[in-house]
Amino acid sequence: GPAPADPESRTDSHCPYCALQCAMTLGSSGTVGARDFPTNGGGLCQKGWTAGTLLGSPARLTTPLVREDGELRPASWDTALDLVAARLRRLRRDHGPDAVAVFGGGGLTNEKSYLLGKFARVALGTSQIDYNGRFCMSSAAAAGTRAFGLDRGLPFPLTDVGEADVVVLVGANPAETMPPFVRHLHGARTRGGLVVVDPRRTPTAQLATLRLAPAPGTDLALALGILHATVEAGRVDESFVEQRTTGFDAVWRVAAAYWPERVERLTGVAAADQRRVATMLAGARRAYVLTARGAEQHASGVDTVSAWINLALAHGLPGRPGSGYGCLTGQGNGQGGREHGQKADQLPGYRRITDPAAREHVARVWGVAPASLPGPGRSAYELLDALGTEDGPKALLVFGSNPAVSAPHAAHVVERLAALDLLVTADLVLSETSALADVVFPVTQWAEETGTMTNLEGRVLLRRRALPPPRDVRTDLAVLAALARRLGQPAARFPAEAEEVFAELRAASRGGPADYSGVSYDRLRAGEALYWPVPDDDHPGTPRLFVDGFAHPDGLARFAAVDHTGPAETPDDEFPLVATTGRVLAQYQSGAQTRAIPELHDTAPTVVVEVHPDTAVGAGLADGDEARVVSRRGAVRARVRTEPSMRPDVVFLPFHFPGEQRANLLTNPALDPTSRMPEFKVCAVRLLPSGGV
Ligand code: SF4
């Protein structure tokens, strides 16, 4: 007989977590179903399958909270909003507009990222806005812009990677962070060419046909070694280098001194393996070099990414159909989140805030005078570091981020948050940052609101509202609109409806590098695959960038002459090991959401430090023991897991856990001079039995 009718109405949506933005359907009661889509091919990971659990979770916030007598207590929306507006007005009056700061997130929709930037610059008049994407994607963004004149994570559809003969993955662990991505690696794997560069033998590295395990902080030297091997073997794509690039000679002047045997001593990667990668790339018909956080999260992260881009350029990959260089964006809206103006140095459309023409265009869309727009403010860590200091912000509004867990030198960041006159958050659950706040606004989750996300390919996706939020929960857009009204802004300037905000975002982005002016909700609803730039309503979008030329005025890509400097902190007698941080499959980012999902929590309930068995023995530890990991900045309590594939000089900790388990208590806030990204991937530590000092 006929199948019984589905009792639930189902809405098409995308996952609330990572940049793969897997397509899913949502039932009216919050059940998740898989949906076929090019990036995930119908697959979801544990995080996606359980995403609906948080919707009805007892952990979620359902009423505004206001701190009274040291405790967060339920309050009405009017009470909470009036209080925040009054205190913001007073701080601004007493200390000037930069006394108020805003901290955003790479998981916020395009509409929220856009309105948050506008709220900061127009309603608050502050220059002090940045976001957590500074911690994870800004180095690749800067290196991509330097090389190609434009940064889009993958400048090609992800499915192109599936056709490759060779893929070189640098500091990326998609088998855990975005498992459905792995299907796009099978082609290269079966054709014999999946190279994984990672100091750890991650689940991704286990798929590799060739694994390179450089010491943390030496990836740049490794790229120079492979480039040297390429030149040495006469395998540079000379016609490409001549016709489509500039600057190779200066790069070779550096790389000439990095012969593979020397690089072997610096990195621990065998010279023969460096030569093998050079030959594999040279012999491939179609090849990709893809980087992620492992290359980026260093005090020399921009130069490290540039070194891998140099290698890709020497092999003629970028801008050639079927080949290329790309960065795997991490957070859900890691791409869109960096385009619409929540970054300290940017205005919507991925424009520079210091560019007079950009200021004029955006000011016109916003109906304000260009001179009234503040200039660039502090970068994320510098902003957190300045909170509550004499010249620093006195108030902070946090949307979609949990810096008490995710920022480096976390104990210091918590001290700075505590020094504020006013901390306000908009949150789904009481994250570690919200627990410190004076006011917490409860906001909707992805399934309860409409908005767009831009995935790792630069494709704009529509997430539709599938079910209503709890009664006293509002969208972030509504919170911003209500605050703006109370700060004296006309209602029409801060709409709370996502589609209305998007219409304004389109206008503001017009003519910019990330031009969304031809993207509309109607086109997205009709299922069009729109990759930016989409400069007008009839434009089909741009799935592949750079095919006819790079985005620099002369159309040429730029080699960057970068040299190996090594990490900011190196081991010594007191701190003899290198700690590196990363992720596990069952948790997402600071874990605020995924730790509240019982199935995920049970899978990865506490922080585990991975250690080589000999290193554990040397520290008086055995598998399963509780250890203390100590750096110059703090100490973490972690369960030991001995792992024979670890380098004996390296320990690994995931950063998703709270309290004394925060890996970021250890990490070094040494910043890249260009991207201002902290060095999450390298700090010096010692390992002790629990109770040791
Ligand atoms: Fe897909 Fe990422 Fe969601 Fe997992 S977390 S289902 S890989 S979008």
UniProtKB/TrEMBL annotation:
GO molecular function terms noted in the UniProt entry: 4 iron, 4 sulfur cluster binding; metal ion binding; molybdopterin cofactor binding; NADH dehydrogenase activity
Q: Name one GO cellular component term.
A: membrane
Query: By its UniProt entry, which SUPFAM superfamilies does this protein fall under?
Result: ADC-like, Formate dehydrogenase/DMSO reductase, domains 1-3
Looking at the record, the residues that make up the 4Fe-4S Mo/W bis-MGD-type domain are 8-57
Task: Name the Pfam families on file.
Answer: Molybdop_Fe4S4 (PF04879), Molybdopterin (PF00384), Molydop_binding (PF01568)
Q: Which UniProt keywords apply?
A: 4Fe-4S, Iron, Iron-sulfur, Metal-binding
Q: InterPro entries from the xrefs?
A: Asp_de-COase-like_dom_sf, MoPterin_dinucl-bd_dom, Mopterin_OxRdtase, Mopterin_OxRdtase_4Fe-4S_dom, Prok_molybdopt-oxidoreductase
Question: A single GO BP annotation from the record?
Answer: respiratory electron transport chain
Q: Which PANTHER family match?
A: NADH-QUINONE OXIDOREDUCTASE SUBUNIT G, RESPIRATORY NITRATE REDUCTASE
Report what the protein is called.
Answer: Nitrite reductase
Species assigned in the record: Saccharomonospora piscinae
Q: What is the lineage of its organism?
A: Bacteria, Bacillati, Actinomycetota, Actinomycetes, Pseudonocardiales
